[in-house]
Amino acid sequence: MKKPIDRNLLIFISFVFGMIIGFRLLAGKLTLMIDSETILSVFGFIGISYVYLFRLLIIPITLVSVMCGVFKMQELKNSGPIGKRTLRLYMVTTMIAILMTLFVIIVLKPGMTLTGDSVNFGFVSTELPTNVYRFLMLLQDKLMLKLIERKAEYLVITGMFLGLVLSYMNNDKMKKHFDTLNFRLLQVADLTWLITPLGVISIVTVMFSFHGYEILFPLIKYFFVVLFIYGIQILFVYPTLLVFSAHLNPIIFLKKFRTALKVAVRTSSSNATLPVTMDMLENQFGVSQELSRKTLPVGATINMDGSAILYGSATVFLSQLYGITLDPVTLVGIFLFSAITSVATSGVPYIGVFMLGIVLDYVGIPLEGLFIIVGMERVLDMVSTLVNVAGDAVCTLIVAQEEDEIDLEIYSYL
C-alpha cells in the first residue's frame, strides 16, 4: 500500500511552484498563448475565492474552539489545588512565550527588506484587473463577508462568554455536544487542506509576480527568527523554570525527554505525542500516574506555547511586511489574542492556521498574507509541537515537585 503524500510537503511544493511562476511572469517569460493579465486574473480569482472559503470557516471554528478551550480550563480549575496550580503555570509559560516573541520580532524586524523598508503589499484582489476585482467584490457582498472583517474581537469574546456560561451551568451533556461539534468542524477544516495547494499556488503567484525577489529576504529572515525564538523557549525558559521553581536538573530533562520530542516532531500533534509523554514522565521521571493523567491531557489541549509564539511572530511579521504600524494598544491586543487563540488551538495539525487567521483579522492584515508563510508551516509546525509538548512536561514536573508526587531517584537516574 502506497504511503499518501504529506500534505504540508505538498503545500511547500505548491509555494515553490507559485514562486517560480510569479518570477517568470514578472520577467515576462511566461506567456504561452495567453497574456500575463489573463493568467493573473485566473490565479487571482482562484486565490481570493479560496481566501473567502477560509474566512467562512474561521467563524464557526473559532467560536466553538474558544468555547471548548474555556471548558477545559474550567475543568482543570475545578479539579482542586493541583488543577489550579497547573493552570497558573500554563498561563505563565504562555505569557512569557508571547512577550519574548513580540520583543524579538519587533527588535529584529524580519518583515523589513534589505534596505530597511517594508514591502508595502496591497490586497491581492486590488492588484487584479478591474473586471475580476469587481466580480470578487460582488461575490464578497453576496456572501456577506464584510460582516466578518475586523470582528475578530467580538467573535472571541462571544466564545469566551458562552464557554463560561455553559461551564457554570455544569451541563455535561451540552459540553459533550460542543466537543462533538468541535471535532466535526476540525474534520471539515482538515478537508479544506485538500484544495489548499491550489490556493497557495494562486496567491503566491500573484504576490511574487508583483513584488519579486524583495519578498524572499523577509521570508527567510522570518523563518530563522522564529526558530531562534523556539530555541530560547526550549533551551532557556523551560530549564530556568525547572531550576528555580522545582530545583530539578534541566540537563537530565533534556537528555531523557528526547524520545517524546522526536515523536512530537514526527507527528506535529500534541495529542498523538500524549501517550509517549505520559509514559516517559511516569516511568523515566518518577511522576505519579494520578498527577500526570490529570495535567497532561488538558495541557495537550490548552497549553500551546509553540502556537502562541507562531501567532505573535506571524502577526507582527506580516504587519511589517504590509507596512502596518502597530501602536501599544494593538500590541496588547495581539498579546491577548495570541494567548486566547493558543488555548483554543486543539492539539492536532493544521488547525493553528485558522486560529492565526483570527489574530491577523484583528490587526487588519489581509488573510491572503497568511498563505505566503504557510509554505514553511511544515517545519515551523513540527518545532511548535515540540515546544508545546516540552511545556506540558515541564509544568507537570514543577507541579509534581511542589506536591511531592515525584520520585527524585527515578528522575536523576540516567
Topology:
Layout (H helix, E strand, L loop, with lengths): L6 H20 L9 H42 L3 H28 L21 H13 L9 H18 L2 H21 L3 H16 L4 H31 L3 H7 L1 H10 L2 H14 L5 H14 L2 H17 L6 H17 L6 H13 L13 H26 L5 H5 L2
Descriptive overview:
This protein has 414 residues and is an all-alpha fold. The chain has one domain (7-412): Proton glutamate symport protein. It is 75% helix and 0% strand. The protein has 17 helices and no strands. It has helices at 7-26, 36-77, 81-108, 130-142, 152-169, 172-192, 196-211, 216-246, 250-256, 258-267, 270-283, 289-302, 305-321, 328-344, 351-363, 377-402, 408-412. α8 runs parallel beside α16 and α13 (305-321) packs antiparallel against α14. The longest helix has 42 residues, at 36-77. Mean pLDDT is 81; it is low at 120-127.
What structural category do the secondary elements indicate? mainly alpha
Which stretches are poorly predicted, pLDDT < 50 over at least 5 residues? 120-127
The span between the termini is 40 Å
- Overall geometry: globular
Overall radius of gyration: 22 Å
Give the CATH architecture.
Orthogonal Bundle
Enter the CATH topology name.
Proton glutamate symport protein
| Share of β-strand residues | under 5%
